Amino acid sequence: MIKFLQSFDKYYIGIETADGRKHCIRGWYLDQRFDHKECPKGFHMYEFREDDEDEWGYIAFIEPHVWVNHSGTFVTRTKIPFGENGNKNVFEIRYGHFY
By C-alpha distance, which of 54, 53, 74, 52 is closest to 62? Predict the structure, then answer.
C-alpha cells in the first residue's frame, strides 16, 4: 500500500454536501487513471474532472468514475457520500491544494 501511494502527491480538497456541510478531505493525487481494483484496502479511489470552460485544465469536480476530461486520481481514507441524503454523484471542488 505505501509503495503504491509513494508516487502520489499529498493533496486536499474542499467540498460542500447537499445539506450545506463543508468537508476538507485529505488524500493523494496522481495525474493518471488507475483501475479501482488497485486501490489499497481501507482506502477509497475517486477521479477528478477538468472544467470544460477553463483552458488550463482546472480541476473542478470529483466523481466516482470519470470518462471524459479526466484530470487525475484521488485516493483517500475518507468515504465521500456520493448519492447519499440527496447528494449528487458529482461534487464541485471548492478549493484544492498540495501540502
Answer: 74
CB-side exposure of 43: number of CA atoms within 13 Å? 19
Q: Dihedral, CA atoms, 16, 82, 26, 92, nearest 10 degrees?
A: -40
Residue 3 main-chain phi, psi, to 5 deg: -60, -40
Retrieve residue 57's grid coordinates. Answer: 485544465
Between CA 40 and CA 45, with CA 41 as vertex, the angle to 5 degrees is 55
Alpha helices in 1-99 (DSSP H): 2-5
Calpha distance 93→28 (Å, rounded): 15
Question: pLDDT (tens digit, 9 = 90+) per residue, 19-69?
Answer: 788 889 999 988 888 889 988 899 999 998 887 776 665 778 888 989 888
